[in-house]
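Researcher: Next entry in the queue.
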Amino acid sequence: MSVAVIACGALAAHVHEIADRKNLTLRIEPINPMLHNRPEGIAPEVEKMILELQPTHDRVAIAYADCGTYGAIDALCDKYQVSRLSGDHCYDVFATAEKMKAEFESVPGTYVFTDYLVKTFRRSVMTEMGLDRYPELRDDYFHSYKRVLWLAQHQTSELEAAARDAADLIGLPLEIIQVGDQHLEEQLLKLIGAPSE
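Model: Structure for this entry, 197 residues:
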């Protein structure tokens, strides 16, 4: 059976890693992760890929949570009879919705990093939000936040240094929770109809 996975670019590397370690043959098509800054553009790009992949694959899966589309990805899932990852955002995908709810309730004003955001912070946040050109906007953007919470999938000393640097750039203390990618793996295997063992 041929399987294609349309993946948020921020999740695509993790999907590749899971496919490799589970010996899965998948066609993985990433969508530009910068669309998270303009989420109204996500669903149209996902739909283009669905239309391209469905005629040539037995199954197409969507490696996205809702990601700020306010149900637009769910509408595509209904229209084309495909499924997506559960959750409102990739934080739920890595840490579970229950864990994230508890973290947000514990410290309202939590800004969340994933490994992807740690690696790309200067481009995806500082540049995309104009903070490299107008650093005085930092307080406007981040004044309501109290901490940064890094949901570490694969923590290394280099990534930890980058996470601390990114948190310093926005003036927030950093906390780290090891989450790995097991929850993503479980959901992905279910989406593509593969056995979990």
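Model: The radius of gyration is 17 Å.
Researcher: Noted, moving on.
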